[in-house]
Specification:
about 25% strand; single chain; 3-stranded parallel β-sheet; alpha+beta
Length: about 240
């Protein structure tokens, strides 16, 4: 007998601009290689907002097919504690505090097979397709191919919620292969930009320049290690 309820509270996207808070949505079913977590919290990405407002990159238009598959539960910046595991799960146990990469690799395509799983061709992502519902719900299913990491017990929630976006920021800087002779320009000092600035500073580039139209963000960029900050709306 399951120890978690059959239904849960969840924010469900049924269509473009049609998001509803459901109080009795079915809880996910745990397969043999799956993990079910009880959500601790979920961040809100700019992509979540663009999707809610109907951006064509998600819902499609005359130039591109839809990418989302409703009904789905949004949210990919989330973490929680394991409440149920499938029979094939050995690395994690009930009670573990865990999070997962945004992408859910298929494990079968050429990119997954050669270790570049972030280029996975099906490119399933938490929070945009009904097969991989996201964290804006009481419970979430991590499928067998999810890339899962343990979260330290003593990490405060507001820091733990930055694991996914800052992981993306680190990945971007790693791919740039920054050296100490490079002049680096980061355009945009939002959450991801500030994460990139912090990590790029550790690479000790010759000059780290940051552009943003919001002066408060540029102040943060300087605090995080930028050498020069410019607001293109105020200077040439």
């Amino acid at each position: 007998m399951r120890k978690i309820p059959e239904t849960m509270k969840a924010l469900v996207a049924y269509g473009k601009g049609n998001y509803k808070l459901e109080y009795n949505y079915p809880t996910p079913v745990c397969g043999p290689g799956d993990i079910i977590i009880k959500t601790e919290a979920c961040g809100i990405c700019a992509g979540d907002l663009k999707c809610m407002h109907g951006a064509a990159m998600f819902w499609g238009d005359e130039n591109q097919p839809p990418w989302v598959r409703p009904p789905f539960i949004p949210g990919h910046e989330f973490l929680g504690r394991v409440v149920e595991t499938g029979e094939r799960v050995t690395e994690f146990k009930v009670g573990d505090r865990i999070t997962a990469d945004q992408i859910v690799p298929c494990g079968k395509c050429r990119f997954c097979r050669d270790g570049h799983y972030w280029m996975c061709q099906p490119h399933a992502i938490f929070g945009f397709q009904k097969e991989n519902n996201g964290g804006m719900a009481e419970y979430v299913r991590y499928p067998e191919t999810a890339v899962i990491s343990k979260v330290p017990e003593d990490m405060p929630l507001e820091k733990a919620l930055l694991i996914e976006p800052y992981g993306c920021a680190k990945h971007a800087v790693d791919r740039a292969k920054i050296g100490n002779e490079d002049i680096v320009v980061v355009s945009g000092a939002g959450t991801l930009g500030l994460g990139m600035i912090t990590y790029a500073r550790m690479k000790n580039p010759r000059k780290l320049i940051v552009l943003d139209l919001v002066n408060e963000r540029l102040d943060k960029a300087s605090e995080f290690g930028a050498d020069l900050v410019w607001n293109p709306g105020e200077e040439n």
